[in-house]
Amino acid sequence: MAVCPSNPNVIGVSNPRTGRSDYELFLPDIAEIAAECARLRNNQAAWCAGGLDDRIASLTRFANVLGVHRDAILEALATDTGRWVLTEMELDGLTGYIGARCSHAAAVLDEPVGGNVQKVSFRQQYVPYSLLAVISPWNYPLILSFLDAVPALLAGCSVAIKPSELTPRFIVPVQAALGDVPELDAVVSILGGDGNTGQALIERSDAVVFTGSVATGRKVAKAAAQAFIPAMLELGGKDPAIVLESADLEAAAHSIMRGSIVNCGQACFATERIYVEYAVYDAFVEKLCSLAGEIEINYPDIRQGHIGPFIFSRQAEIVQNQLDDAVEKGAKVMTGGTIENHEGGQWLRPTIIVNVDHGMQIMREETFGPVLPVMRVGSVDEAVSLANDTSYGLSAAVFGAEQDAEAVAARVDAGGIFINDIDLVGEVGLDAEKNAFKCSGLGGSRYGPDGILRFVRKKAIVHRHDKPDEISSLAGINT
Ligand code: NAD
User: Fold this and answer.
1) Is 235 within 8 Å of 439 (Cβ atoms)?
2) pTM
3) Is the residue at 476 inside a domain?
4) Is the dihedral angle over the CA atoms 452, 455, 456, 458 positive or is it negative?
5) N or C: where does the chain have the smaller number of CB atoms within 10 Å of the terminal CB?
6) What pLDDT shows up at residue 166?
7) Judgement on whether residues 197 and 279 belong to the same structural domain of the protein
8) Per-residue pLDDT of the chain (479 residues; tens, 9 = 90+)
9) Neighbours of 126 (CB within 10 A)
10) Separation CA 252–CA 259 (nearest Å)
11) What pLDDT, on the 0 to 100 scale, is given for residue 429?
């Protein structure tokens, strides 16, 4: 990504498979952002007044028209990200997610009543934020642009989405799909832009959901505090996996390999640290190394292989620097370890490293690459203490006999703990709520009922049915 010297309002966007800039993103100016926010805000009242059934019908039509625009969306998103299979999964995941959220919304948004009809009763009214800003990252550009937008729209908000400037190609075909559902187009906008666009949106919104790095999350929180609006922050992770003596090592190795290499490791929930009990460490590392040999990169055919390229070259640099730091401090690379350049794209095969410790960046900083640092631990207590030795608290995994793993899970300081697999939240995410702990986020659960309810303010309308209290009740006994 580079600003075009002849026009500072245009950004050149790199293609992950070639490293060449082959797309231009036009940055909106402040007047355009303000006009778009005003348009969305003006249309929100009618969207909300139309009722939940109409909103569900519109979103369902949107899910269907995504199918009509499928080829164009896949082509653009695959160019943004350099991978095909996960791109299909992203689009299919989004249509499935819209359907699932729609089918749960009525129960979640049912406004409670309570109290005592003889004395004092209440009705809870849910008042959606008029305009929600959604700022999304480059690693899953489509799904992370809509994961919060869909429940917010169901709640009755209008939504301005600002995807990452590193992966903007998918915007045009998705906007075309939105255009086929005019009443939805009236309350949703996808604005290509950079950090300044994000800041301008925050200033004009009533709430913001931000998915991205901790460093930018702090800036978003600051801007939101200035604007006095809530900031819901979904940030980075350094997810640990703990492998207990009682684990099925074959199954654990499979899950951990998959969880580490998914999207070339460019996933907030990727497994980035592995702690293995002493007795099973050698056998586990052997299984992991043998699995690594079966993993292919998706070069030269984007539709083959398990691992795509790094989405941009800076990410490859970060991973290389962490690997160099680890090796300098005594780590041993068992597999992978060398970033391969093919026709300008950069790939890394599964990189298993041992002899690692918490003095190394690779065990402390978010890596975002297909790297599996494995550490031998002498006890369960040591594993838990190392797993918690991090500023992050997104999620974690424990592998072992159910009761042993459950006991360990209760001690790990993170919002989602997956037993005997990785990243299970998607499978129960409409029911189970999950906060991000520590620096991994702030502001309610993006999953479960709270994933919708965090976009409304709760108003209590309270009725007095019997006689109000007497003024004399305020007076002291002797007056
Ligand atoms: P980033 O913080 O660099 O950028 C994210 C978004 O913020 C982009 O759209 C960017 O244009 C925008 N932005 C940049 N500066 C801004 C500013 N000052 N004000 C407002 N917006 C601004 O993050 P990234 O590199 O795109 O994404 C990777 C990070 O996202 C990783 O840390 C990853 O763990 C995290 N992530 C978290 C989750 C989650 O669910 N917790 C999911 C995916 C990714």
Assistant:
1) yes
2) 0.97
3) no
4) positive
5) C
6) 98
7) no
8) 555 556 679 999 999 999 999 999 999 999 999 999 999 999 999 999 999 999 999 999 999 999 999 999 999 999 999 999 999 999 999 999 999 999 999 999 999 999 999 999 999 999 999 999 999 999 999 999 999 999 999 999 999 999 999 999 999 999 999 999 999 999 999 999 999 999 999 999 999 999 999 999 999 999 999 999 999 999 999 999 999 999 999 999 999 999 999 999 999 999 999 999 999 999 999 999 999 999 999 999 999 999 999 999 999 999 999 999 999 999 999 999 999 999 999 999 999 999 999 999 999 999 999 999 999 999 999 999 999 999 999 999 999 999 999 999 999 999 999 999 999 988 888 999 999 999 999 999 999 999 999 999 999 999 999 999 999 999 976 65
9) 19
10) 10
11) 83
| Residue that is written with structure tokens 């041992």 in the block | 354
Question: Who's near 218: CB < 8 A, 6+ residues apart?
Answer: none
Residue of 170, 179, 167, 180 whose CA lies nearest to 74: 170
Q: Is the CB of 80 under 6 A from ligand 1?
A: no
Q: Looking at residue 84, which CATH number applies to its domain?
A: 3.40.605.10
CB of residue 318 inside a 6 A radius of ligand 1:
no
Pairing of strands 113-115, 21-26: unpaired
Distance CA 129, CA 132 (A): 7
Ligand 1 pocket residue status of 211, Cβ below 6 Å: yes
Distance 135 CA to ligand 1 centre (A): 7
Locate 16 and state its tokens: 């992950």
Name the active-site residue from 268, 277, 365, 366. Answer: 268
Rounded distance between C-alpha atoms, residue 301 and residue 343, angstroms: 13
Residues 190 and 140 in one domain: yes
Could you give the CA distance from residue 115 to residue 322 in angstroms, rounded to a whole number? 58
| 234 Cα to the center of ligand 1, angstroms | 9
241 lines ligand 1 (CB under 6 A): no
Q: What is the CATH number of the domain that holds 297?
A: 3.40.309.10
Instruction: Find the 85 Cα to ligand 1 centroid distance in Å.
Output: 23
Cβ burial, residue 88 (10 Å; 0-12/13-18/19+): middle
Q: What separation, in Å, do the N-terminal and C-terminal C-alpha atoms of the chain show?
A: 77
- C-alpha 54/C-alpha 65 separation (Å) is 17
Distance 276 CA to ligand 1 centre (A): 31
Q: Is 245 a catalytic residue?
A: no
Whether residue 365 has its Cβ less than 6 Å from ligand 1: no
* Claim to verify: residue 17 and residue 125 sit in the same structural domain: yes
Number of domains in the chain: 2
Q: Is 470 labeled as catalytic in the residue annotation? A: no
Buried b (16+ CB within 10 A) or exposed e, 136-161: bbbbbbbbbbbbbbbbbbbbbbbbbb
